[in-house]
Amino acid sequence: MAAAGAGSGRVRRPGWMVVASKELAETLTSVRFAILVLLLVFAAAVPVYAASGAIRDAAEAASGEAALFLALFTIGADPVPSFVGLVAFIAPLLGIAFGFDAINGERAQGTLARLLSHPIYRDDLVNGKFVAGLAAIGIAVVGVMMIVAGVGIVRLGIIPSPGEVGRLVAWMALTILYIGVWLGVAMLASVLVARAATSALVAIGLWLALSLFGVLLAQIVAGVLDPGFNPADPEAALGHAQLEQFLSAVNPGSVYQQATLALLNPGVTAVVVPGFAQALQLSQQIPTELSLQQSLLIIWPHIVGLLLVMVACFVASYVVFLRQEVRA
Asked: Which of 185, 184, 94 is nearest to 136 (CA)?
């Protein structure tokens, strides 16, 4: 009886933790993860290497500037774009790659019904896969950032200050949240679409549409909603620009780029989308340098917006999957 009691007193891990640990172990040892990380390292290291060369060429003029190390990530060397610009474009592939076959992949392999026949519930499956995807994204982002920062230190020959390190850590957390949005989109596609290839095409198509044509789509929708505005009227032009700014805020890529600009550039005191409203607000700014806390206050709405989109996609995939029929 004592032995039985001791055996029965063993603490069992929750089901979602079992799924998450299994998925994370498989992800970190997969060829897919290695290829994506190498792609991200290459896409991130090349702009930093080029930008460090440009900064070293102008070392005398740049030596007195604050946050010089952060300039590695925000400036580009023609024709190479900036580090943050490439990351904003390529990083969503991590989220899509880890989520497009999360559910329909198990269904296609015939392992979904067998997995749920064990003491693993549907909510544990969804929660575990999402947590494993976020953990893999976090490991990839932190690893890539350490490599890129090392390249910048060697090339530039300076050590980042504690304030710059804090901004980089905050930016890494923001990047993980941004990629988590696309992880949620990909998981939702994997629940709604039966084939993994089709769900990947849906998620990638949405990513490309918003990344390449996000500003154009905002302008088109603004023109439909406000067709009779007069560009010669300053008030009408300002109202139309604010409408475009509101519509652009729906695009996670635009929100991420705006927040990145404020985090990695202490001199940014207002974050708006490009256009007439940005030119008006920048002309009214007083040159100053903000602390990390002040920059976080500026981008707090952006952080909340990205978090809400990620949670909404996850909840939608959660609810839809719980109502789906699972056949053996």
From this structure: 94
Give me the helices (H) in 226-323, please: 234-248, 252-264, 276-283, 292-323
179: pLDDT strictly greater than 90:
yes
Pairwise CA distance, residues 103 & 306, whole Å:
23
Residue 206 lies in a domain: yes
What is the residue range of 55's domain?
14-323
Residue of 281, 185, 264 lying closest to 256 (CA atoms)? 264
CB 71 within 8 A of CB 62: yes
The confidence score (pLDDT) of residue 60 equals 46
Domain count, the chain: 1
Helix (H, G, I), strand (E, B), or coil: what is residue 211?
helix
Following DSSP, what letter does each residue of 153-207 receive, concatenated? HHHH--PPPHHHHHHHHHHHHHHHHHHHHHHHHHHHHHHH-SSHHHHHHHHHHHH
Residue 131 binned pLDDT confidence (cut-offs 50, 70, 90): very high
Q: Which residues contact 244 (CB under 8 A, 6 or more apart)?
A: 218, 219, 222, 273, 275
- DSSP 8-class letter at 279: H
> In sequence order, what are the residues at sequence separation of 6 or more whose Cβ sits closer than 8 angstroms to the Cβ of residue 58?
none
Among 175, 186, 112, which residue's Cα sits nearest to residue 144?
175
Is the pTM here over 0.85, yes or no?
no
pLDDT in tens, 180-210: 999 999 999 999 988 888 999 999 999 988 8
pLDDT for 187 equals 92
In a domain, 9, yes or no: no
Specify the 3-state DSSP secondary structure of 79: coil
Q: Do the domain assignments include residue 18?
A: yes
Tokens of 206: 């949405």
7 assigned to some structural domain: no
State the average pLDDT for the chain: 78
DSSP 80: B
Most confident by average pLDDT, 33-47, 68-82, 130-144 = 130-144
In this structure, the chain runs to a length of 328
